[in-house]
């Protein structure tokens, strides 16, 4: 009877005892009828360890398209034939205005995102740090960025500019990564995360579910994030884009998506587990249930190349559930 297993493992987590990999795998095999019970336990764990606050972040696609990397899911990869906007780095004033809009929308954090492998020999780095400083002077936002692979010197430069958290997804598990990207390695991504942590900054790192990975590989990702002591874990759900290598990937059933959120919460009880891209397509009218399966953070508004429900609708969902968006 899988509901007994759910109660047993839920009690273990609530007693601050970490799940083992084998225990987490057992939660992937529960009866479908018991998935709502798992969601309820995950919700209890969320409340116990992180309360009712929701960490909100709005992002800007500050430099789009023509990316050299071959990530199989990505609309911005130059390896794919996708009708995607391509433009150079936005100017400082443009980025500042985007930040001010995010603040007006109610975002707590603002993240500058650029297409590309990383900042090595990138002439835009100084302009990005200058924009981060300007946003810090003229808004009350927590500032984040997602610029790909970094060296320790890049991390120092971002910290000096005022970044408090750096985003760099692992994307998927180590064992599945070569099926998703061949132009850089999983180990390079891990090294950037370690460089960021070593500098005393927080890390936002998660991945995408529904890429074709097994349940075991999905759980492997969650444990890797736990081992790296990542602070914020965005969980995207693949939204297949025509022209990418995963355009025909079969979507995950909604209950499996919610079950995945709940298992991540039990593995990572005291972390921010963040709603990210693909939730609208994967869940439709079930989007609010994500917050009742362990989610306590979200991207609000739009994503890099696709539109969301809008910041106002996102925050209304949060409030109607009795949750509290973190304020400035």
From TrEMBL:
One of its GO terms (molecular function) is 2 iron, 2 sulfur cluster binding. Its cofactor is [4Fe-4S] cluster; [2Fe-2S] cluster. [2Fe-2S] cluster binds at residues 111, 144, 204, 274. It catalyses: (4R,5S)-dethiobiotin + (sulfur carrier)-SH + 2 reduced [2Fe-2S]-[ferredoxin] + 2 S-adenosyl-L-methionine = (sulfur carrier)-H + biotin + 2 5'-deoxyadenosine + 2 L-methionine + 2 oxidized [2Fe-2S]-[ferredoxin]. Its EC number is 2.8.1.6. It comes from the Bacteria. Keywords: 2Fe-2S, 4Fe-4S, Biotin biosynthesis, Iron, Iron-sulfur, Metal-binding, S-adenosyl-L-methionine, Transferase. The keyword S-adenosyl-L-methionine applies. Pfam families: BATS, Radical_SAM. GO terms for biological process: biotin biosynthetic process. SUPFAM superfamilies: Radical SAM enzymes. Pathway: Cofactor biosynthesis; biotin biosynthesis; biotin from 7,8-diaminononanoate: step 2/2. CDD domains: Radical_SAM (cd01335). Binds 1 [4Fe-4S] cluster. The cluster is coordinated with 3 cysteines and an exchangeable S-adenosyl-L-methionine. [4Fe-4S] cluster binds at residues 67, 71, 74. Residues 49-279 form the Radical SAM core domain. InterPro entries: Aldolase_TIM, BATS_dom, Biotin_synth/BioAB, Biotin_synthase, Elp3/MiaA/NifB-like_rSAM, rSAM, rSAM_sf. Belongs to the radical SAM superfamily. Biotin synthase family. Catalyzes the conversion of dethiobiotin (DTB) to biotin by the insertion of a sulfur atom into dethiobiotin via a radical-based mechanism. Homodimer. NCBIfam families: bioB. This is Biotin synthase. It comes from Sporomusa termitida. The lineage of its organism: Bacteria, Bacillati, Bacillota, Negativicutes, Selenomonadales. The gene is bioB_2.
